[in-house]
Inverse folding.
């Protein structure tokens, strides 16, 4: 296993379209996190899963955002009716436990035009 | 209000110079982490400091956790162009050591080291 992978790496979409990102964590890591990062800022927490259960969602995660981790392995983050303000880097991280180090993927950079 | 305040926000220096980046908070933490992030990549953990007054060294990087566990600093000696990147402090635990799970990051310091 070479680490956390995210696809696609870049996504350009028009306002109003739906987009879906995928994250494949390090195998056997039961925690999976999604963060959003705008240019020159630190990442902001969006949501996390322990196995397939979504345990917490940030208030940043509006109704247009939904995340799933159906089998406790990979996760998807969907944004419906994208807005220009959704343009950001979406980072995924995984850890072996709540106290374990989080390993980040390379991110998906979303540009909404 | 940011839980973790980093300064400076931007730092542009010449190769060979020394620099210090600060991470401050009004809250007490049982641990703080420092990450480095290159453009187009995710953050990579550099170090975790857990004891008040602790100093950790990683080659030319020196990390210090304040005695009161409310602040931390990162000092780079003889900076090189390869040190260029976004330096982030973060915490995932409160003063009692309870893990939040999620990480809360500072806004970061963008370091540029010119050859």
């Amino acid at each position: 296993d070479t680490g956390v992978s995210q696809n696609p790496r870049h996504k350009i979409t028009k306002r109003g379209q739906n987009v879906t990102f995928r994250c494949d964590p390090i195998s056997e890591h039961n925690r999976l996190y999604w963060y959003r990062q705008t240019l020159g800022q630190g990442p902001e927490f969006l949501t996390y899963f322990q196995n397939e259960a979504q345990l917490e969602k940030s208030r940043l995660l509006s109704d247009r955002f939904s995340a799933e981790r159906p089998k406790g392995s990979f996760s998807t983050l969907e944004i419906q009716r994208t807005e220009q303000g959704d343009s950001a880097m979406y980072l995924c991280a995984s850890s072996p436990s709540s106290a374990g180090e989080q390993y980040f993927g390379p991110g998906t950079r979303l540009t909404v035009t | 209000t940011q839980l973790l305040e980093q300064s400076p926000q931007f730092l542009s220096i010449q190769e060979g110079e020394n620099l210090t980046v600060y991470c401050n908070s009004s809250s007490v933490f049982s641990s703080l982490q420092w990450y480095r992030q290159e453009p187009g990549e995710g953050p990579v953990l550099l170090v975790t400091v857990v004891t008040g007054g602790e100093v950790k060294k990683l080659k030319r990087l020196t990390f210090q956790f304040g005695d009161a566990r409310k602040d931390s600093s990162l000092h780079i000696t003889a900076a090189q162009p390869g040190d260029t990147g976004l330096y982030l402090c973060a915490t995932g635990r409160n003063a009692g050591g309870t893990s939040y799970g999620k990480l809360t990051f500072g806004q970061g310091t963008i370091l540029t080291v010119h050859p």
In short: The mean pLDDT of chain B is 91. Chain B touches chain A through 23 residues (CB under 8 Å). The longest strand of chain B covers residues 85-93. The radius of gyration of chain B is 14 Å.
